[in-house]
Amino acid sequence: TYATFDTAQAGNRVKITGEMSKNFPMEYRPDIDPNIFKFHLTDSDGIEKQVVLAKAKPTDIERAESIVLTGSLKNDIFYADEILTKCPSKYKDEELSLKKV
User: What is the pTM assigned to this prediction?
Assistant: First the structure.
């Protein structure tokens, strides 16, 4: 089930779509726990929450255009165990130049 932070009910497993917030720093300390990555996500309604991902920090997550997280909300923190990122296409510039021709 897709939800926003407002509609996610505590304990229910949902998918949240949004963008990584640039207002807060990411926290990843692989020397302490390589399977905990913390960041903030702004959902499709513009609401920002802290996310605790129970996986290693995905490569190039800073460049992701959008993020889909699967998990649950608890005590105003979203605990995710699955993540999908949509990164900018390396072919986007080529597509734009082809459209101009």
Answer: 0.83
Cβ-defined contacts of 39-46 (< 8 Å, 24+): 41/16, 41/67, 41/69, 41/78, 42/18, 43/4, 43/5, 43/16, 43/17, 43/18, 44/4, 44/17, 44/18, 45/4, 45/5, 45/6
Distance CA 63, CA 4 (A): 22
Instruction: Round to whole Å and give the CA distance between 37 and 7.
Output: 24
Q: Report the run of H or E that residue 18 belongs to, with start and end.
A: strand 14-20
A 10 A CB-CB count for 75 gives 6
**Average model confidence (pLDDT) for the chain?**
88
